[in-house]
Amino acid sequence: MQELIDKQKALYHTGQTKPYEFRIAMLNKLKKLIKDNETSILDALKKDLNKSEYEAYTAEIGYLYAEINHIIKDLKHWMKPTKVAAPLTHKGSKGMIYKEAYGVTLVIAPWNYPFQLALSPVLGAIAGGNTVVLKPSELTPNTSHLLADLITKNFDRAYFSVVEGDKDVSQKLLDQRFDLIFFTGSVPVGKIVMEKASQHLTPVVLELGGKSPAIVDEDADLDLAAKRIIWGKCLNAGQTCIAPDYLYVHESVKDALLSKLVVSIKEMYGDQPLENEEYSHIVNERHFDRLVDYIHNGNVFHGGEHKRENLVIEPTILTDATWDDRVMQDEIFGPILPVFTFHTIEEVVEAVRSNEKPLALYYFTEDEDRQQHIIEALPFGGGAMNDTLMHITNPNLPFGGVGQSGVGSYHGKASFDAFTHEKSILKQTTKFDFAFRYPSSKTGLSVIKKLFR
């Protein structure tokens, strides 16, 4: 590993990764690589998570195409030094901000979107002019092997390399000195990453998770709310960091919404989801057993069936769970939706505030004043009004958490910003000089007082 990092550092210091033309060439090369291997990518995702072609293309491959296209379109503009205004005390000077690559970067990817969440941060690293070491998740071995094979055959190892392995390999990577670490995964592992990075004061971007609420108020369009909540919850069998983790619904529309949630489940996954070949599976037996245990935390309003041999769990709606139950102590990360009721929106505000800041929040109401109240009253990474998940598909919206749900953000320009340092430069004139700045000036203090008051 040390040899690999030394090679990447040496390549970076040649300046080869920094020109605009090189960055664009590498982005186009990666895009072509994905296009040429779509079938293999779809096959790997099917084997690892039983992802349907529709889900794999839209949430993994297609997403990357959109992100690459967006970066290519605007990269030249992002790279340009930015001129800033100078105060009167700096007359004659120019203030400039240069966008400088960090250097050798490490990207540690998760298993839930093992292709998209591996390469999406890499796009920011390439756009920023860095070299990159990618560590895919060992829990999705087919996708990990495919990434390693494709990247090794098509990119110089000293520029872009894939290192496979288990958590011990991740630990060894974290023991090395990188210039930036980008991690996507759980909060407990995120704490380990940050602790390791602190030994070298390495900057980190942590994309974590948490319990993201969906809220349905009494005036919401219930048909649309039900459809969009089930879509957001059950995409990838709920194994999505920004999936609605639990639901608060106004007591006056609870029964109606519950019925519509069931209708939406049947419309999307049929009467027998366990037999639906288009429905994603749980990643492994450990996570499957954890989720099955959650099903007993409350009353099953709908679903609850599961098959361990296929690692598949029905979309499940729970009622009568409490915040003391295990299902509400941890991020669910599966197709189980606990439902709570509220009488006033302030009850929801109090409940959400009493827990860690969520990565996402979704509020369904036609009242824009109520929307604004929730946006201002509750801290969360990002979210949507009258929808779920869709905020991350707009490349102009930075995506990231706050507090325990993450540090830093990316997507679009935010990805470029995440992998570059803003280097501030003052270009001073030599045509004249201000005597008052020097301690020998007799009138210096009086001039300075006038300037700053």
UniProtKB/TrEMBL annotation:
Family stated for the protein in its record: Belongs to the aldehyde dehydrogenase family.
GO biological process, one term: aldehyde metabolic process
Protein name stated in the entry: Aldehyde dehydrogenase
Gene Ontology terms for molecular function: aldehyde dehydrogenase (NAD+) activity
Source species of the chain: Pontibacillus halophilus JSM 076056 = DSM 19796
Xref: SUPFAM superfamilies: ALDH-like
Annotated Aldehyde dehydrogenase domain residues: 12-425
Domain of life (superkingdom): Bacteria
Family matches, as Gene3D superfamilies: Aldehyde Dehydrogenase, Chain A, domain 1, Aldehyde Dehydrogenase, Chain A, domain 2
InterPro entries: Ald_DH/histidinol_DH, Ald_DH_C, Ald_DH_CS_GLU, Ald_DH_N, Aldehyde_DH_dom, Aldehyde_DH_NAD(P)
Annotated GO CC locations: cytoplasm
Keyword entries, A-Z: NAD, Oxidoreductase
Active site: 207, 241
Pfam families linked to this entry: Aldedh
